[in-house]
Design goal:
Keywords: Membrane, Signal, Transmembrane, Transmembrane helix. The protein is of the alpha+beta class. The protein is 22% helix and 28% strand. It contains 4 helices and 17 strands. A 5-stranded mixed sheet has the order 2-8-7-4-5, with no helix packed on it. A 5-stranded mixed sheet has the order 11-17-16-13-14, with no helix packed on it. The structure holds 2-acetamido-2-deoxy-beta-D-glucopyranose (2 copies).
């Protein structure tokens, strides 16, 4: 951003916040996906995020309901890992499938995101874990090529330097500052199971991202310069101690904001309706009980007749030799003095109360 613009932006921001007081602080929208991909094993009803070392994953992608720009071949996998401080960028051809053997050592966590030729996103998959190969002998597959030079980047969170597997509180900022390389730089935030965010800068100044992921969400971040030198870290997680306003994003608008006066009014209306419904249902309930009481008298007579063949009593619910003392039925002496369970007394009580 040029120096002349640096004053204009805060000014514009001030004007905007005066006219739209409930509009929240700016946030970075995620890249609207153009397609989606997965590499679920066939026959597994859900993806199990484990890969053995050198297992070949079968990546398939497709444009379904995605509304981003039309995807264009060739496609790229961007792979973030817990074991390397740069992303791996693997050419995946023109698709719509691609097989790749995962070479990372056991214990590595990795996450794949996809992009098309023009940088349109295909989203990011879950974080997978590499486990030792199950076939005998050392695993054999082509190892990854480590880039000749990587980018030097200083990363910070609100309270100091960012650690590789750190937790950054939600709605606080992560800032990355390139120390070498050639502008423009792209900061990419790649949350698991979520489209990525890109922030681009033409200078070596810090790029900041507000952690707009809720508590516990994992994500990787990377910085790539114009010559393809790169840096990455993660998996990071969103922490729970920050504010939450940024998580509302654009959902909290003037239309959906319920002011206190409206909600108090709604509360009173709700109370009145509740009271009316309560009175009505009590009346109906009482009427029903009076009829049920009459029916109960008949049923009582019927039960006395049918108890001559107690079907349920024949089912052995417990071995007969077990110590039944702990299952002793409540005897009449256990019933407190002031509870009358004599036949008809409840009926009489209800009849007396409702009439
Ligand atoms: C690739 O190299 C790393 C060390 O750089 C090693 O730990 C890993 O096992 C290798 N992968 C394969 C498939 O040989
Ligand atoms: C987003 O960033 C990645 C690098 O991390 C880049 O390959 C891609 O082209 C970028 N896409 C857009 C739309 O800027």
């Amino acid at each position: 951003m040029e120096a002349s613009n640096s004053l204009l932006v805060p000014l514009l921001g001030l004007v905007f916040s005066t006219f739209f007081p409930s509009t929240h602080a700016s946030y970075t929208p995620f890249l609207t996906p153009s397609f989606s991909f997965n590499y679920n094993s066939p026959g597994q009803p859900l993806s199990i995020p484990i890969t053995t070392q050198c297992e070949t994953i079968h990546v398939t992608w497709k444009r379904k309901t995605e509304i981003g720009p039309d995807p264009t071949a060739p496609y790229l996998l961007h792979i973030y890992t817990s074991a390397f401080v740069f992303p791996f960028i693997i050419a995946a051809g023109s698709g719509p499938t691609f097989d790749w053997a995962v070479p990372f050592p056991p214990g590595t966590q990795y996450q794949i995101c996809m992009f098309d030729k023009n940088g349109n996103a295909g989203g990011c998959q879950a974080i997978y874990t590499v486990i030792p190969s199950t076939s005998p002998g050392p695993p054999t597959c082509q190892n990854v090529t480590v880039p000749a030079s990587s980018l030097d980047v200083e990363a910070a969170a609100a309270h100091g330097p960012l650690s590789q597997f750190g937790w950054v509180d939600q709605c606080t900022q992560v800032s990355v500052t390139p120390k070498n390389g050639t502008p423009p730089y792209t900061l990419t935030v790649a949350p698991a199971l979520h489209p990525p965010y890109n922030i681009t800068s033409n200078t070596m100044r810090s790029m900041k991202w507000t952690v707009s992921q809720s508590w516990g969400s994992p994500f990787f971040i990377s910085v790539v310069d114009s010559l393809g030198n790169s840096w990455a870290t993660g998996p990071l997680h969103s922490g729970g101690n920050g504010p939450t306003a940024c998580l509302a994003l654009d959902d909290v608008s003037d239309e959906t904001w319920v002011g206190p006066a409206v909600s108090v009014g709604a509360g009173v209306v709700g109370l009145v309706i509740g009271l009316l419904v309560g009175i009505a249902s009590t009346y109906i309930f009482m009427k029903y009980r009076r009829r049920a009481a009459l029916r109960g008298a008949f049923r009582g007579a019927f039960n006395r007749l049918s108890s001559a063949s107690p079907l349920l009593g024949d089912v052995p619910l417990a071995p007969s030799n077990s110590d039944t003392s702990q299952y002793r039925p409540v005897s009449s002496s256990d019933v407190p003095e002031n509870v009358h369970v004599q036949d008809g007394s409840l009926r009489d009580a209800i009849r007396g109360w409702s009439s």
